[in-house]
Amino acid sequence: MRIDKDLVAASATPLVLGILAEGELHGYAIIKKVGELSGGDMQWTDGMLYPLLHRLERLGHLEASWGHSPETGRRRKHYAITPSGREALAERQEQWSVVAKALRQVWHNAQLPPAMETGWA
Amino acid sequence: MEPHEGLEAQIAHWRGYVARRRAISPADLDELEDHLREQIAERRAGGLDEDESFLVAIKRMGNLDAVSREFAREHSERLWKQLVLLPEDPAATGVPPWRELAVVLSLAVGAGLALKAGLSWLGGDEVLLRNTGLLVFPFLAAYFAWKRRLAVRLLLALVVPFAALAVVLNAYPFAPEGSTGLLAALHAPVLLWLLAGVAYVGGRWRSDGRRMDFVRFTGELAIYFTLLGLGGGVLIGLTAAVLQLVGLDLEPIMEAWILPFAVPGALVVAAWLVEAKQDVIENIAPVLTRIFTPLTIAMLLAMLVVLTTAGGLIDVDRGLLILMNAVLVLVLCLLLYALSAREPLAPAGIFDVLQLVLLVAALAVDAVMLTAMLARIAEFGSSPNKIAALGLNLLLLVHLLRAAWLSAGFLRGRCRFAELERWQTRYLPVYGLWAAVVVFVFPPVFAFA
Questions:
Q1: Which of A26, A30, B107, B198 gives B139 a disulfide partner, CB atoms 3.0 to 4.6 angstroms apart?
Q2: ipTM topping 0.85
Q3: Among A50, A52, A72, beta carbon nearest to B31
Q4: pTM for the complete prediction?
């Protein structure tokens, strides 16, 4: 299934913050994690992740540090969430639960064709 | 790409290609390359060959134009080097390069004609002085309006304050040789410049990033304008020298025709040059600030020593206050310029310490002057000139105090660089407000004296 790009963009920040809330990671690991979490349905354009990470860093939600890859020794930038990032995440979480709750009711009330219903379930 | 190129060669090739995007710094490129290599390694582990893995990894990386545009949006200080955002689709905009040149040249000539008309038909030096900005501004704003394709609503938002300003400057019954008239003439260009800024940022004046772009633009414009002025001066000097050999005097022609056209024309052309050729100067401006920050610190410290040891200021008048304002504006320009060119994510360094020293020195000198000045005003009463100079001084003082506070916080890791940057851009409209007060409110309050 292809997910609309506006939806991908809107969910990118909470996803990144949420994934980093579990521990620091580098960019590639974040992309992989997103793929795993969505069962491969959400395919981000890899290059677009980095400007987002830099923006979150500038806003103070993330902290970046250069380290080295354990396998190859290549220079690698790791991102970790900051307290302000955790606050932002909590805020996003509230917003999304409101949206999700409203959507659940809409799906419940609306007469959807059966194929779409299973798709969203 | 060669089908049998080795993987390393292919990656090097890709790296070279991406490196041409100025919005992507070498460190970002390392980050992206690490990503690419991991993606390739994973494809290889999944059974693809080198070429296939490389192609898949490149494809996953996304459209390079779109990615670099995203980088540019996030790092506008780098984007500055590259000029506004990459054209979304050069074919779609369909503006041939000569058309822009034609527009710029006609606007430059238009500005010259307007000024010449003003010189010929507006009676009196004072009336002319009040109107100079009004005559030239529409042409500069028109260039941005054309370039940014401003919407009609925004154009109205520019025209209305412009018209209000024009009415006030010409309809107020200013007393001849009065100071409120002169003050209005001096403060009107500030308002006009901020209006030009609204046009420059295409109406997105609420955005801190765009405001900072306008600050950069202003600095670059000053440099270009100076360079054009120097070049023009050399040409005029040589011409005059040659004409003198045959007994012709260039001066009347120069005053009547060359200067009225050359000066406003150079302003419009400089604006266009900044838009078109930013990176020619791009490396000079930050270097200039780095050279002049320590020198200015030395100057301020010398002033401080002289002022505190000389035992009482002999001639404390508004001239001193104006001089002090000029010093503070200089410090402010150095600060704004250094901040606008700085990589926001870089950790605090020695130059940030120097900047704080600069701010503290400027504040100390101003404090000494200001106490002397306040005593003077208490003694001899106020005048529009003193109030205007004092008001500006206080505005600058607040600006620099807060900037010093924030940069101390930044050095101690208490606040982020972005806060320091935001303070600058948020505070800028205050100067516009003050200029508006001086132009619109001062004359009636001081009975147009």
A1: B107
A2: no
A3: A50
A4: 0.67
